[in-house]
Structure prediction request, 264 residues.
Amino acid sequence: MTANYHTHTYRCHHASMEDERAYVEAAIKAGYKELGFADHSPMPLPAGVSIDECLRSVGVRMTMEETEGYISKLLDLREEYKNDIKLHIGFEVEYFPEVFDELIAFLNQFPTDYIILGQHFESPRGRIYYGEETRSPRTLAGYADLVCEGLKTGKFTYLAHPDLCNYHGELEAYEREMKRVIETASECNVPLEMNLLGLQVQRNYPNMAFWTMAGDIGSYVVIGSDAHGTRGIKPERALYYAKRFIDNTPGLTLLDRVEFRSIK
Ligand SMILES: [Zn+2]
Ligand SMILES: [Zn+2]
Prediction:
């Protein structure tokens, strides 16, 4: 693994307080040729909605005001370390149709290289966190709807933890909805991310039922470390299991690096 495009910073308020420089040095030490930062993007508030109504979702991302500092810090590091590693500036973005255009316009004010789709909530209000256990087919379908619509915007370079939705109901419903996600990603040429953080801390994802289906349909896969601290930059054990699973699953094609989609 010589590239990772899913790295967070302290600016999202739930990662380690380490400086970005520490991540860059850890990545060089780990043998990466490319490191992409994709911290949780800020989120504009929908018209007429107060920040108090959105605290759960707003609290896990950088603010609009913090964005400039994030960008300038990474530009400086990119220049300073240009002989050692290629640094990319990105964001992990939720697809919320009511504020998406405004967010893209905002991110386009900066030299943003790419965005990845990471759907955690149902709306800017954050009433439903999809990582929480649910038996509701409506919640599951809502997740799939948002992800599919997001993929169709053509702006996302890849789909982070596509299997985040923690559904424990009927397997048939799970397969039907995730099939939509996998097929839409394939139609839109968007690779799926196998997420090392989930593997490392034993979350509900990577979900092997999901990945077996992704193999049956045929999918391109990117491995993302989703580092929230330098220790997560290249978790070797998780990486070993992820690679072994991908190698042993026909229909999954591992990509070493990705082509960025323009967000213009
Ligand atoms: Zn995070
Ligand atoms: Zn992430």
